[in-house]
Design goal:
The chain is α+β, with helices and mostly antiparallel strands. It has helices at residues 3-21, 192-198; strands at residues 88-90, 93-100, 106-112, 116-119, 122-132, 141-148, 158-163, 177-185. A hairpin with a 5-residue loop joins strand 2 (93-100) and strand 3.
Amino acid sequence: MTGAVLLTLALLLSAGAAAAQGTIESEQLAPLIPGGQLPPSDTPGLLEDGEQGNGEIEEMPAPSQEFKRAPLGVIEPDSPVLVPPVDTVATPAAKIRQLDKLNGESETLTIRSGDRQMAGRLEILVEDCRQPTAASGHGDIAFLKIWDTRDPEAEPVFSGWMFADSPALSAMDHPRYDVWVMSCATEAGEAAGDSAQKSP
């Protein structure tokens, strides 16, 4: 055998003999305690500045008060603003605009209060059209009921007030048609406000 192999065998034999005699000792480290502390030890240790200590580790300080979550405050809602009622006058008819979103065609209708009229496949009933007084600053409003005649037994696709100055406030939800109120009108088809201005 070569000298290197003999040396390796000699080292292995010496290590086995030492282990058999119990000369090799091992020490199990103590587990950490939750909270980042070590258990007390009888063996004194060294502090960071090199001085001898008693083997005990000081308890970690409590978190600073400035990092604690502040209590949630109570936000009071704003009081609702009451809008005074608007004075209106009844008009004989309503001017309605209907748009077919499929082909882009639109149609303007003048429907008397209490009458029904067809627009495409929609049947529109004007129950009432009212015009606020000039001092109120609001637009005309009309109460409509609209049916889709493709299903005669179905409920109306729209029933309620429509606002000429805010069509999106109360709009009909239909996949093909849009309907909105333009203004109140006279029986001749003129806007009610225009006819009132032309009258002597």
